[in-house]
Write the structure tokens for this entry.
Amino acid sequence: MNREEHMATDKLLLGYTDEGVHAFIDHSAAWLGFGHRSVRHTTETIEYLEMMKGNKAGRIALLHILIDNQIMDAKWLKNTSTETGEGEADVT
């Protein structure tokens, strides 16, 4: 998933986004390619971003990492966004 897709997913599921969080997490992608996920895709990164930028940044980081590690996939995200008919996840 590219940065724009990550940010759209944030807005859909969380109601907010922060491009800086995604840039920080994916900083090593330029030279590591797909292997960048071995760097900054950790619970330590989530905790660091929460400490530096607040709880919202931590939630964005968690969602980013869950998606990149394929714990949540695009099919699930699409189904979630259409279940309510309003483009918002039904979390009840």
Notes: The radius of gyration is 13 Å. The chain has six helices and no strands. Confidence is low (pLDDT under 50) at residues 88-92.
